[in-house]
Amino acid sequence: MAVLGLGTRTVPRTFARLAVGLLVDPGCHDGAMPTSGASSPEVRDGLFIGGRWRPAVDAATRTIRCPADGVVVGEVAEASAADVALAVEAASTAFELGGSDRGSWRRRPPAERAAVLVAAAGLLDARLEDVARLESLDTGKRITESRTDVSDSISSLSYYVDLGSRVSDRVVDTGHGHIESRVVAEPVGVCALITPWNYPLVQAMWKVAPALMAGNSIVIKPSELTPHTTIELVRVLDEAGVPGGVVNLVTGTGAEVGDALVRHPGVDLVSFTGGLATGRTIMAAAAATVKNVALELGGKNPNIVFADADLDAAVDLAVAAAFYHSGQVCSAGTRLLVEDPIRDEFVDAVVARAEAIRLGGPFDEAIDAGTLISEAHLAKVERYVSAGVAEGAVLRCGGRRLDRPGSFYPPTVLDRCTSEMSVVQDESFGPVLTVEVFGDEAEAVALANDTIYGLAGAVWTGDPDRADRVAAALRHGTVWINDFHPYVPEAEWGGFKQSGVGRELGPHGLAEYTELKHIWRNTDPRPQYHLGERA
After folding, report:
1. With contact defined as beta carbons under 8 Å apart, do 85 and 192 qualify?
2. The whole model's pTM is what?
């Protein structure tokens, strides 16, 4: 789902180097701070519909627990299809009629919408530490990662405020002086935004910022496992002055709430980030009303290392690519492809780094990685590792859950893999790195493209010409050369093949939330065609 860091930040590289030379057991390392017991800011735990906080229609709630230790984070409302109907109605009313005494959102000039979102960015920045703690409590990720996530979310919001403020009509030259022709980008309407659990705030902002800046009304559904920072985001938008009904929040399961959103005839666009199976279901359901669909569905991302690469740097980033956020990253470099002459040396170095990574609770500043999101997800990762070993992979490190509370699974390296193995082809979404070997450039490209996915990949080489050739040949939406993971809001993010449909970030990320209208004006409307005229 989301990637790491912003611009030239080297978060992944820093992570990898933390693991160097740590003479400790690769299990947990608890610091003086409690895993998740520190107090968190008060959060409204209801649904937000039509400009007010309210309980679910049936008063149902869900308990959210930190996956690092099971401590309760909070109780949130659990929506149903009935709540979804109310939220979509509120969003539709706001889009068509204005929705509240704050006036119509879509009819405001872009500069006025921008001013409200600038205020929201300021409020979020003022609460950065509190929001980061919420992110860590819900996800179990390191607090340092969560702080970066909040900062990156603010940067994405700021980018769309600036971009959306500069959008103007496109004038078309018709070649006729009496004809004025222009193309106008208008908001799509009611947008259902369905976000994942691994980067709750970042992924919400990638959708919310362009959708609102374009003038849409939204209904956002965060993962039922990690709702709190999305709740806080909605709170901030309301405080900043977004009109009631423009932003609506429904918390609950994908099977109940997500499905009702996707199938609702009042929803004009569905933007979803998550698993491939769910993405396929959404596409099929959206077809009934021919909704616009934007999907980011993950990947099985190759990291190609040639023998002439800077091997120290490549090892650093191979470790970060696979094990940052315990591998729970859609762009994680979980397929390591190594040129044969350096195979043993390189893989040995990666294994040594992986074995030195320390796991622990989110508020221990000394750890390198946190927990998986849940016991169920841990069991899924275990199944993939077991299947890989059964298919012939050699387990070099990890491969067994830790004997401690929480959903912890150690960095795992599977050597001697082939592209036919399920652990190579399927997205386990955990800290599992598979190793394949190639003999030449053509084989490296063929292996890297041997996947139904096409989200991201990387190539490491000291030969600039080869780097460009391989980057051009890879069927992946993002290709890093001698790096892994960084992104900037200005550049589009999305995948080829079954990694998704459409793009987030960049100008295309804003365009996803618009419809184009061509307006033609004839300033000299005299009869021209004379059809049926008789002499």
Report:
1. no
2. 0.91
